[in-house]
Prior knowledge:
Radius of gyration: 18 Å
Number of domains: 1
Order of helices and strands: EHEEHHEHHHEEH
CATH class: Alpha Beta
Number of helices: 7
Helix content: 40-55%
Strand order of the largest sheet: 2-1-5-6
Oligomer: single chain
Shape: globular
CATH superfamily: Glutaredoxin
Distance between the termini: 25 Å
Strand content: 5-15%
Structural class: alpha+beta
Amino acid sequence: MxxxxxxxxLQVDFSLDLICPWCWxxxxxxxxxxxxxxxxxxxxxxxxxxxxxxxxxxxPAQGLxxxxxxxxxxxxxxxVEARRAQVHAAAEAAGLQLNHAAxxxxxxxxxxCALANYAQTLLDGETMIRFVESIFAAYFVQGRDIGxxxxxxxxxxxxxxxWNPSSFDTLQYQSALGNAGGVPHMVFNQRxxxxxxxxxxxxxxxxxxxxxxxxxxx
Length: 218
């Protein structure tokens, strides 16, 4: 493989839904791959462009009962248990401990996804990563309803994010996930695409291949 160009930028377009545990796992894997890349190329810069969008916009605004929703979606309690075990194993490998037992509501994520897209216009890269992780943790660890305006206000305040939900234009910050075959979906330097919670080694390989090509313009 051609060696990465020393001044090449590395842009990652990250499509996600904040209700998807695989997206949190994928983010953690991406951060692990970034750490491995920095060990090889300490001066390398990486930027994440967030594209948060709701996979199930038809969910009622007040959300649905979490367990009942998944049992209907997957075909019963045993199917939910099997899927959850798979998610927990992947999460633990990424350094995460999920608490599905605490979750009561499957929310509509239009607002929280729009908030994440808005947040990146104001927050620096590392603060944005922490903000996104705080949303994931609120839902998958603390069991808070991330479809609730009150919960989102609290999360925004904790990130020192200036956000007024009463005047917020949700439509302006909606992101279509139509170009992604699933989430998480990552595009490296607008060329190499990876869909799913790929392991850090695969993401590192994608980064190195993207850097070996011409840098992104603009």
